[in-house]
Design brief:
Length: 228
């Protein structure tokens, strides 16, 4: 098995393959076991740093393997040589797998810290008046924040999305209190039920099928992705 993994690593190094979740885990395992050097690890991913394309087929959001807290479930995804992950309610990090450094750290109040390397690829655009923000990567939007203030509860609800439509993190900001994380899976199920109800209403109103509505939404998502 170790020999097989070694040859997989050599293949990735020679091909200079773009990072994927499986490639990352394989290379990290080989590096930790001493089967490849740090320089070989860097070489295997060096080409991916030059890629400028950002698309949903490159980004796979998943639950973090380090997530142990039931109330706050951590999520992560990989883009090139970066691991983007939620650290706590309202905060995220971008860890550079080549250097081991955290190149980007953004807190619940949009307090941010960028390393010199992080500034080369990332920038944070804030719109405090509209309670929104965008984390751009290589000049393209990677993550967006959308906030909604609810005066009755003196609270602001934020949703964090990847590429403008892929759910990544939801949280609530309360005055004078720590932010509260909202469970993505439970929240998404509520949204899906609400969307299904609206689809049925639209299908009756406009005399079209649910399948037609799904195709329209699919074209819309594709249009957003192409625009990004």
């Amino acid at each position: 098995m170790r020999i097989f993994l070694y040859f997989v690593a050599i293949f990735l190094i020679n091909m200079q393959a773009t990072f994927s979740d499986d490639n990352i885990e394989t290379l990290k395992k080989l590096l930790s076991e001493g089967l490849i050097t740090e320089e070989e690890f860097k070489k295997a991913s060096s080409k991916s740093v030059e890629s400028k394309e950002i698309s949903n087929d490159r980004i796979k959001i998943r639950k973090s393997t380090t997530s142990k807290n039931v109330k706050f479930v951590k999520y992560e995804f990989y883009i090139d040589n970066y691991r983007i992950h939620t650290l706590g309610p309202g905060s995220i990090r971008a860890d550079n797998l080549l250097t081991g450094e955290t190149d980007v750290a953004i807190g619940e109040n949009f307090k941010s810290k960028f390393t010199k390397e992080g500034k080369k690829y990332f920038d944070l655009a804030l719109d405090e008046e509209n309670l929104s923000a965008k984390l751009n990567y290589k000049g393209r939007m990677l993550i967006n924040w959308s906030g909604k203030y609810v005066a009755h509860h003196s609270a602001t609800f934020y949703q964090m999305q990847v590429l403008g439509y892929m759910p990544f993190h939801f949280y609530i900001m309360l005055v004078g209190k720590n932010p509260i994380s909202v469970n993505i899976d439970k929240f998404n199920r509520k949204i899906e039920k609400a969307v299904d109800r609206v689809k049925k209403e639209m299908a009756i109103k406009f005399d079209i099928s649910i399948e037609d509505i799904d195709k329209i939404l699919e074209r819309k998502n594709k249009s957003i992705n192409n625009e990004i």
